[in-house]
Request: fold
Amino acid sequence: MITINGAKIYSLFEEDYFEEITLEQLRIALISWMNFIKTRPEHGKSEEIEL
Reply:
């Protein structure tokens, strides 16, 4: 759920678990996801982002 105050992100694995993040954190996560999708697959490579 997204509101003017932030976003509530629910877990796909645990029905009752969620995190509340700011809209800026959501923006960073979405940009990072977009950049990840654009990258070429590399075996064994992992990336972490700081929200």
In short: The mean pLDDT is 91. The helical segments are 23-38. The chain has one helix and three strands. The two ends are 18 Å apart (CA to CA).
